[in-house]
Protein: Class I SAM-dependent methyltransferase
Organism: Amycolatopsis plumensis
Amino acid sequence: MPTSAADRLQTLLETPAPLRDGYLDLLGTADQAGPPTGLTQRLMRTTLLPQVYERYWRPALGRALKGPSGPSMAGEVRLAAQLLRLEPGHTVLDVACGTGRFTRAFGAAVGPGGLAIGLDGARTMLAKAVAEGGPDTVAYLRADAVRLPLVTSTVDALCCFAALHMFAEPETALDSFARVLKPGGRIALLTSARSGRQPARLIASAGGIVSGQKMFDRGEIAASLRARGFTEITERYAGVTQIVAGRLG
């Protein structure tokens, strides 16, 4: 009997997780993992936002933050897959997957022998992700995105787009990302990028305070990855965002 994607995911977890509503759940009755960081993160847990997230909210917000030179959301999905160099048979982890737009694309890219894991802390987001369907190579997990519950060196690629700046402990998250990647595994991150020039820097910092998001400096994420043993690092900037990618080891 063929093994389901959820069963395969179960074997990669440090602790077994019960299956609830179509996804594995390690958070149980908790509203989220870790402390809330602000308005944007709280919105992710609402019932309404997941219904409009993929089609309206995320594309519109992304365009406002990336400016006219940044990729569309569909372009982000394609770029992430390219940066991760996904191949058939790979296991890829989509951290803070939301409603699963990237996860579904990754599931198609890794083929029938691969596994695409969508991890998020919001029940409402994962409920919408499950309802969207997708390849049978996709499995969803409700868990802590900062302290990943996967066994060390289990994934070939890790994506975290538009989320690291909302984590209460982003440096701890980066440690966890490096831990679960296999040697030679690839990472792709999209997060905030504050300009070094005033008044743009001041405006970006103020926006981050209001929304509860951390504004990283340009070059800061690349330096953090180098400190954790990543090489072949690339950086792309658009508006107040950065896309940073690299290879572990």
